[in-house]
Please model this.
Amino acid sequence: MNSTPTTVSSRTLVEARLQAPPSRLMVEFYEKPHLEREVRQFDEYLQVDIAHTIMLAEQGILAAAHAREILQALQEIAALGASRFPMDPAKGSFLLQVEAFLFDRVGESIGGRMHTGRSRLDQGPTVRRLYKRRHLVEVMNGVIALQESILGLAALHDDTLMPGYTCLQHAHPTTFGHYLLSFSSKLADDFDRLRETYARVNLSPLGSAGLAGTAWPINRERTRELLGFDGLVVNSKLAREAYYAAEIAGALSFVMSTLNDLATDLHVWSSHEFGFVQTADEFCGTSSIFPQKKNPAGLEAVKFAAGGSTTWLATALATFRAEGTGDVVMREVPILDSAFTSTQGSLQLMTAMVATLTVNEARMAQAANENWSTATNLADRIVREGNLSFREAHSLVARLVRECVDQGIPVGGVTAELLRHAAAALDLPPPGLSTDAVRGCLDARAFVQTRTSTGATAAPRINELTQSAIAAVAEQQAWLQVRTDKLAAATAARARAVEQWSR
Model:
């Protein structure tokens, strides 16, 4: 067999049935863009061709000598790589590019046998499932890496006091570690969605032969095994269906939503008015006119990418219109290419920014004690010791806050007399707390240690959250390792079979 690349065969699939070749417009606006996308899946196409050829040989459908020549030609294509493999968009899809190469090397009478027992309608979806599986694994690795980065930062700030916000107003004091652990938990949920999606992606449609199956005695389980799939798309009609792609779009959108939430908070907190955090210089930009500015460009990049993610699921679902339409069969949600790129890049960027984040602990603690975020604690104390309902105590403390704000009295200046005055204004009995007791209730650092319910901010609860998050990451890593080991085993099995049939 000639191992030197030559000009591929000029024979095309369509000329036997159609009286005219594809128009220049069809080539330019349909075939070429489609082929460019398929070339990104170069490795996956060859994996499918190799697995199918091996199965045909093992089943006796393909003669050993023919299998050897086809496999040698496929290995030659692999050695050329996507950048050097000769292609002509006028010939059509990547399958036909490979066939043209085979015909040039081993002749159509041999090379044309590779497509026995299959169709583009099961070959293409198989390729795309492999491609999406690979990228799902990369995204899941990225989610794990970000969790590890967050846990590392959270461990440094488990008792770093800061305000907690609702409606962008002080609500309760919390710690920066507790805040970060909430994102580790959200990312764990994102990982679960991704792995559930993986289970539906990692099914083999190969051998469905387009619609109704095939009369050839193929072995679908063998190609499933050689390609590392966990199961089959059993109903042959469903081979070309791509609804799992919408699940991918949804799962990736959730990841981007989590990243957007984190990036938005850090972006706001990096402003001068907050002054809580700063991203490292290597993730910032400057202004062309304002000399003083240090712009958190990395955070803005993540937020920008997340904005586009809000349309991914809707776009994917809009693609599915009717049975057999070309936009499903031939395109299969091309938006996922950019979705994977955006998600992977955003995860990597956020992981690096979290790992290098500067935290202004003093400013956070100062803010936590400034704006009455401990008021709930005082209300709880009044309920326990003042024989009032929580709603009555809530009203009393709200009146106290209003009067102090109106008079310009800071949190640290509250007295028992002010509390009694507020109670009298509401016709409520005085709580009977001393000034020291009132001020003790309003101390932010003491407050966080009083929150002892499951998942709260007290030190023992923070430790529980941390250990749970560490265990979750370990479980995710173990789950993913089992899958990657299985994929590596499938790659090794294909290599052994290629060696056997290439002798």
